[in-house]
Amino acid sequence: MTKRTQKPQTSVVSEFAAAEFGDPRRGRRLAGIAARLEAKPAAPFPRALATEADLEGFYRFVRNEAVTFQALLQPHVAATRGRMAGHPTVLAVHDTTEFRFGGTRKGCGRLTEAGHGFLGHFTHAVTADGTRVPLGTLAVESWARQEATVTALRKQGKLSYAETQALPNEQDRWFRGVAAAELAAKGSASLIHVMDSEADDYDLMGKLVQAGCRWVIRLCYDRALATARPGQPTKTKELVAKRKVVCRRQVQLSRRRRQPGGAKRRRTRVRKERLATLAISATPVVLRRPYYCKASPETLPVNIVSVRELNPPADDEPVEWLLITTEPIATEEQILNVIDFYRGRWVIEEFFKALKTGCAVEKRQLESWHTLHNALGLLIPVAWNLLRLRTVARMDGGAPASTVLTGVQLEVLRRASHTPLPRKPSARDTMLAIARLGGYHPSNGEPGWQLLGRGYQDLLMMVVGYQLAAEKM
Question: CATH no. for residue 442?
Fold first, then answer.
């Protein structure tokens, strides 16, 4: 896969330039708020806003009924579409996360574990050329659980499968996210929708095929085959186990810390960072419709790519993926492409970390669903900018510093850095210098979100002082 030259960095303020709230004064207020949040992404709002007047203006802004989450998000979606235009194929990575807050907030609801807040289902655009650069958010659907979910009622024996099919279900969010992403992309690029095992749903896959979408979904269930003959495998896992290994590959697995539900859900359990050797095979299959999916196609022709870790550590879970896809698997290159597309899913997990740690979204002291939701809309472009900085800085090939910083930011960083920057610094040089401003030391490994966010905050505050001093000269 070829790597594309990254465009120069743009400011977070520009991500809100096209926002419309029916009053130009609100647009000007938004620009000021965005600039201050970019400068202090993890700081509490009273510290991030410069004066009491600014803070009061911020509270009036997020409380205003004319200011909505979708109105805040749409300019960033449009900017994301513009960044997608230079890429013929883009990954649309889907996932759901919980936003957990202390105490009780008006309009919020219960979460999977003890806590109060709301859920957000995100679709994030990521380059499909192997660099996995985050391009921005395409769609977000948020909701608060006020009552037991349809799935919970079914597990409690209060609803049958047939009854659940006739009711709105949280599982429907996956296809709504696909439809919203396709609408947002508007032909700017061909989307490949990437989802984890929580999206393994026959109805969803049937809708994706009927809509002509491209997709990669990790298998959760051992699904029945429609073409099984006597003496042959009747389920997907048995069939794949009999297929010969096409190739082997080594990949670096990232560390996974404990997450809510991690003890119960295999895909969220703690994992150490390691270099894994993977055995890979692939085969076309025809899935048979489950009895409870009455409205779906009777059969579903798809491809399966199997990824299995060889000789995993004794104290760790082995990597084992079964990836269902509509992408071709005729050659080794095509099979490896499917795996690389799925590996792009981890970008959205890093995006969630950028939101929750780099931007401290769950520590925001706001009193209601409406204000918290609007704060999330303000912080999504800030989190994307932090994630883009770190992603581009970690890329091979020494991407230039101009891809992540403006000329003024780079000049201030050069003067503030205790370790001299090279004459032509790379994006990685600048990321490490920013992290050092936040207290990073090379012996601690790669800088985390807190150090990077803190250093970025310090840099942007120094840029403000530099510009003010230049205006007085």
Answer: 1.10.740.10
**Same domain, yes or no, for 435 and 353?**
no
| Cα atoms in the 13 Å half-sphere on the side-chain side of 367 | 3
Check whether 456 has a pLDDT greater than 70: yes
Has residue 206 been placed in a domain? no
**Residue 349 and residue 316 in one domain:** no
CA distances from 172 to 93, 166, 213, 288, 341 (A): 16, 12, 16, 21, 23
Say how many domains are in the chain.
3
Residue 428: closest CA among 458, 391, 456: 391
Q: Quick one: residue 76, left, alpha or beta (phi over 0 = left, psi -120 to 50 = alpha)? A: alpha
Q: Express each pLDDT in 304-314 by its tens digit.
A: 999 988 888 88
- DSSP letter string, 285-312: EEEEPPTT-TTS-SEEEEEEEEEEEES-
Tell me: do 142 and 259 sit in the same domain: no
CA distance 76 to 95: 19
Residue-range definition of the domain harbouring residue 302: 223-332
- Read off the pTM: 0.84
| Beta carbons of 85 and 126 less than 8 angstroms apart | no
What's the start-to-end Cα distance of the chain, in Å?
50
Residue range 270-296: average pLDDT? 86
